[in-house]
Design a protein that fits this description.
The complex is a heterotrimer of chains A (297), B (122) and C (287). Chain A is α/β, with parallel strands linked by helices. Chain A has 11 helices and 11 strands. Chain C has 287 residues and is of the alpha/beta class. A 9-stranded mixed β-sheet of chain C has the order 3-8-9-2-10-1-11-12-13, with helices on both faces. A two-stranded antiparallel sheet of chain C has the order 4-7. Classes of the chains: A alpha/beta (297), B alpha/beta (122), C alpha/beta (287).
């Protein structure tokens, strides 16, 4: 596919990660997507999606996400309890009268159905969350939300990222959950590049190290954005310099930025100063992604 | 009547365990024979659904009553389905609680807390 | 043992900064870090001794014995977590495997077993003076709730007759938070005056109330958004939740923390505010 200048367009699926919450992942993801013109923003932090609070998307289309949960045909159940004994998650209990299924604990592995000798167990769909698609100016906003108490957000993230595959040539920013758990791994599986957001504190560096290990494990090209930069020593910067990690940009600590962001405003849409910071950052990222693609082809 | 109590150690002078699902042992006490049997609680090592597994154990050992300081929603559902009543312990002494119960001094456990979901998976 | 747990809901609110200061002010001899995904407290408390380490085993995970495997593919077909793939031999992705055991069920040759897997490390620092319990969960692991319980258990048993402990909790609102709340007497919620911060604070309060724990709320970096600060104070008043104080944004705090010290080790605005909170906690929670 070629753009208006006839230049070969490359896939730009970019994940934004951080080792801990509060470093500025959503600030960076939301504002990069907003500054890019046409783009797609995907919020994979399904336990606590925040991007939509900034974008306030319109024309929302919603889809429920299901997992399969066992259900009992009481007449067929003879109380043999093979299912209770098999279940590794303790999601089943037998009281002598009835088999009880604990839906929130069930991992939907399907094992109990296989061990049941009387075929008393079948599966039903259970809603665990939803995905929503809307627009905010030129940004298509995908939001995944997991219902409180559910076992895993992975099925929601899978659906979110699958929906997104229809537009492989638009810039896609994936706002990841914090940390390095399974849901983060799921979110970065198919991306072309990872942006690690780091804050200039001792804790920030410790946690930056976690996601640094993660992106290396997954062999993803990556760079770091230093957020909330103050004067004086920046341990996160030091960390990057020591390891030859590409620093994509520095966002200064700024009272006004902080206030706007904490009020749910998209700073690049409010102020030229921030628009400049993020569009420069975007240009740097695009050129890094292109370099990576070129060196891999 | 058979009473089940989550306990910290395998002797009658032990304390009542503050956790139900992850208590190291359960005491099953028969009020008629006045005999007590201690069982290891295999649920304590579970990564998740400990309350459910512990409740299943109480059901399987045919207890009529559970004395415990706390109980989660899921475990309570299992016990309720098996018609096992749950009473709230009023101090840490196992002997005191058994006496209090047989003298009708303990009340039913009213506050059932949300499941811990300290389970495996994500 | 009376336990004070510090929670925040959203990450990055300053929970560990405040926890470390309170540990100093209370002169707590027993403390723990329940943020097992990203433990930070040890960076400030800086122990002198080497820790006693113990492996933490999570859910056992599938292992395929290539000598018995006949490559029928039943396992791949029935695994709902895409955890098995055929490279040269059938292999299990330990990050994706949830330990359900279905592959073992459908294998016609019994080539698959569930093996204990190390999911993290427990660490206990103990000297004559104090006890510090912490842990690190391995990347990608999902069993953090149970590890949190182990950290607390380890702290309690090592602390002997210590009568007061402070626990730095995990961020979020999920299982590890609920595991932290179990058996705790008082919770200090560190709130951030932002939209997402407020929403998380409300969810944590609801959960803590379900446990009947005493709750107090403080606001960190309150002057970054005065309107939201007022909203939070109003909310606490309406719900009858003690408001124990507010801490201003303090660039000195960042410097102090980066040097591995607490905000009450030097004279600074945030330190002054935390001292007031310390006094209020003693008053309200009757420590």
């Amino acid at each position: 596919m070629r753009d208006s200048m006839g230049v070969e367009e490359i896939s730009m699926n970019i994940a934004v990660l951080s080792g801990k919450g509060g470093t500025g992942k959503t600030l960076v993801s939301v504002n990069l997507a907003a500054t890019a013109g046409e783009s797609i923003y995907v919020d994979c932090d399904v336990e606590e999606p925040n991007g939509h609070l900034f974008f306030r998307p319109q024309d929302i289309k919603e889809e429920k996400i299901y997992v399969k949960i066992p259900t009992v045909e009481y007449e067929l159940c003879d109380g043999c309890r093979k299912c209770v004994e098999f279940c590794k998650f303790n999601a089943l209990a037998y009281t002598g009268k009835n088999l009880i299924v604990f839906e929130e604990i069930c991992h939907s592995c399907g094992g109990c159905l296989i061990v049941c000798p009387t075929k008393a167990l079948t599966e039903k769909d259970k809603v665990i969350g939803k995905i929503q698609k809307g627009v905010s100016r030129q940004v298509v906003v995908h939001t995944g939300t997991m219902n409180i108490g559910e076992a895993s957000g992975v099925p929601i993230i899978n659906k979110l990222l699958e929906k997104n595959k229809k537009d492989p040539n638009k810039l896609t920013i994936i706002d990841c959950p914090p940390g390095s758990a399974c849901i983060v791994m799921e979110s970065i599986k198919d991306v072309d590049y990872c942006i690690l957001v780091a804050e200039p504190t001792l804790f920030g560096v410790h946690n930056l190290n976690m996601v640094f290990e993660l992106v290396q494990l997954f062999n993803k090209p990556f760079g770091v954005v230093l957020n909330k930069c103050l004067k004086g020593e920046n341990p996160a910067e030091k960390f990057c310099l020591e390891r030859n990690i590409k620093i994509l940009g520095r966002i200064p600590f700024d009272d006004e930025l902080g206030r706007m962001n904490s009020s749910g405003n998209i700073v690049v849409r409010e102020n030229e100063k921030y628009k400049f910071i993020f569009s420069s950052l975007l240009e740097m990222i695009k050129s890094e992604v292109q370099n990576e693609a070129a060196s891999n082809s | 009547m058979k009473i089940a109590i989550p306990v910290d150690e395998k002797n009658m002078n032990t304390k009542v365990c503050i956790s139900f699902g992850r208590a190291p042992y359960f005491l099953f006490y028969d009020t008629e024979t006045k005999e007590g049997l201690f069982h290891d609680n295999s649920a304590a090592a579970s990564t998740g659904g400990a309350g459910i597994k512990a409740a299943q154990m109480i059901v399987d050992n045919k207890a009529d009553i559970l004395l415990t300081p706390r109980c989660g929603q899921n475990a309570a559902n299992v016990l309720k389905a098996a018609d096992i009543k749950i009473y709230k312990t009023n101090n840490i002494s196992v002997k005191d609680n058994i006496d209090a119960f047989t003298n009708g001094k303990l009340s039913l456990l009213e506050e059932i807390h949300a499941g811990f979901h300290g389970r495996g998976g994500n | 043992m009376k336990q004070l747990l510090i929670l925040s809901g959203k990450g990055g609110t300053g929970k560990t900064t405040i926890a470390s200061a309170l540990i100093k002010l209370f002169n707590a001899k027993a403390y723990g870090d329940c943020d097992v995904d990203a433990p930070n407290l040890h960076l400030i408390t800086r122990q002198n001794t080497k820790p006693i380490k113990n492996h933490y085993y999570g859910l056992p995970k599938a292992k395929i014995n290539p000598k018995l495997c006949i490559k029928c593919g039943n396992c791949i077909q029935s695994c709902r977590f895409d955890a098995i793939s055929l490279k040269k031999i059938y292999t299990v992705d330990l990050y994706a495997c949830e330990g359900c055991g279905v592959c073992g069920l459908v294998c016609p040759r019994g080539a698959i077993s569930l093996e204990p897997t190390i999911d993290g490390e427990l660490m206990l620092y103990k000297d004559k003076e104090e006890v510090f319990s912490t842990a690190q969960l391995k990347m990608g692991s999902g069993t953090s709730g149970m590890l949190v319980t182990e950290v607390k258990k380890q702290m309690k048993s090592a602390a002997g007759d210590e009568n007061f402990a402070i626990i730095d909790g995990s961020p979020g609102i999920g299982c590890p938070v609920i595991a932290s709340l179990s058996g705790v007497d008082m919770v200090l919620i560190v709130a951030e005056p932002s939209i997402s911060g407020i929403s998380d604070m409300e969810r944590i309060i609801k959960t803590a109330q379900g446990f009947g724990t005493k709750i107090g709320v403080c606001i960190n970096k309150y002057d970054t958004n005065l309107r939201n600060t007022r909203n939070i104070q109003g909310f606490c008043e309406k719900k009858g939740i003690p408001f124990v104080g507010k801490i201003p944004f303090d660039s000195e705090a960042v410097k102090v923390i980066n040097n591995g010290s607490t905000i009450v080790d030097i004279e600074c605005a945030s330190g002054v505010a935390v001292r007031k909170i310390h006094a209020k906690i003693i008053d309200i929670f009757k420590i």
